[in-house]
Amino acid sequence: MKFGVIVFPGSNCDRDLVWVTQGILNQPTRLIWHEESDLSDIDIVVIPGGFSYGDYLRCGAIARFSPVMQSTIHHARAGKPVLGVCNGFQVLTEAGLLPGALVRNRNLNFICDRAPLRVERNDLFWTQGYEKGQVITIPIAHGEGSYYADATTLKELEDNEQVIFRYCDAQGNPSPESNPNGSLHNIAGICNRQGNVLGMMPHPERAADEALGCVDGMALFEGLLRAMPALA
Amino acid sequence: MTNTVVTQKYHAQIYVTLRPSVLDPAGTAVKSGLSHLGYTNVDQVRIGKYVEVTLTADDETAARQQLDRICDELLANPVIENYRFDLTSV
């Protein structure tokens, strides 16, 4: 399985992702500059965290129009896997591949912390390495990670079980107190209706190396490898 | 007889504002600051963006149509924002 990690001017988590997919999991991985448009050799496109194009105008707003995003949109519409982490999630909403938007954190703080998340589904290739309802701890680092969507969209997301990760307390309750940024319905990560596009504010790649003290994110990448025959 | 293309230069003042249903924590923080300054009669502060664009177009209708597209496609995110603009010929 070949990973493609997109690099925008201002991306800063691209190397962390490559460290996991290539460095730890020994999977072929290619860094893809934003001006490239050929993704034909790539199985899984990953849009990393950072501040693409300086987050000018809105987070992810300019990145959406880059050549590589036009190809990523084709990749996603063909049913192939696309993962957006943090700024990558913002880019996916701006590109219309995922519904809603990420707005300024409720308390205005840039939050750099470890957040407990409840895994809402494990019947997708993204989360098959987890138990349904499992509480995992994944780092978050964002200033604009408050998930917003109108009431109709929220209802559709819940009805179609598109919420994949929810901020929760240690017992797995998605309480107001365990919501770090004001996200509606404590949403930390969602997928599209088809399930092949996942966007999440938490950083699984920062929780995949024993040296960092937490490996709760590794099951996401390992789950992808197990799904390889079907995806590649 | 010469066939000249007449284009006009326009100046647009574009206001992008958060939809009323979207919380504005930055506006709330500024309201709190105003309150500390003694402006306790300020009920609400909402922060938006102001963008100036100059462009050439055949006429005002064409300019307005293009600005609508520019705002819909990039300057505003319709999920969270509204926009309006004033247009003057320059």
From TrEMBL, chain A:
- Where is this chain's protein located in or outside the cell? Cytoplasm
Protein name in UniProt: Phosphoribosylformylglycinamidine synthase subunit PurQ
User: Which Gene Ontology terms cover its molecular function?
Assistant: ATP binding; glutaminase activity; phosphoribosylformylglycinamidine synthase activity
- Keywords, ordered alphabetically: ATP-binding, Cytoplasm, Glutamine amidotransferase, Hydrolase, Ligase, Nucleotide-binding, Purine biosynthesis
What the entry lists under InterPro entries is as follows: Class_I_gatase-like, PRibForGlyAmidine_synth_PurQ
Tell me the function of this protein: Part of the phosphoribosylformylglycinamidine synthase complex involved in the purines biosynthetic pathway. Catalyzes the ATP-dependent conversion of formylglycinamide ribonucleotide (FGAR) and glutamine to yield formylglycinamidine ribonucleotide (FGAM) and glutamate. The FGAM synthase complex is composed of three subunits. PurQ produces an ammonia molecule by converting glutamine to glutamate. PurL transfers the ammonia molecule to FGAR to form FGAM in an ATP-dependent manner.
CDD domains named among the record's database cross-references = GATase1_FGAR_AT
Quote the catalytic residue positions. Answer: 86 (nucleophile), 203, 205
Q: Which organism is it from?
A: Myxacorys almedinensis A
Query: Which Pfam family, giving just one, matches this sequence?
Result: GATase_5
Known pathway: Purine metabolism; IMP biosynthesis via de novo pathway; 5-amino-1-(5-phospho-D-ribosyl)imidazole from N(2)-formyl-N(1)-(5-phospho-D-ribosyl)glycinamide: step 1/2
The record describes its quaternary structure and partners as: Part of the FGAM synthase complex composed of 1 PurL, 1 PurQ and 2 PurS subunits.
What reaction is this protein's catalytic activity?
L-glutamine + H2O = L-glutamate + NH4(+); N(2)-formyl-N(1)-(5-phospho-beta-D-ribosyl)glycinamide + L-glutamine + ATP + H2O = 2-formamido-N(1)-(5-O-phospho-beta-D-ribosyl)acetamidine + L-glutamate + ADP + phosphate + H(+)
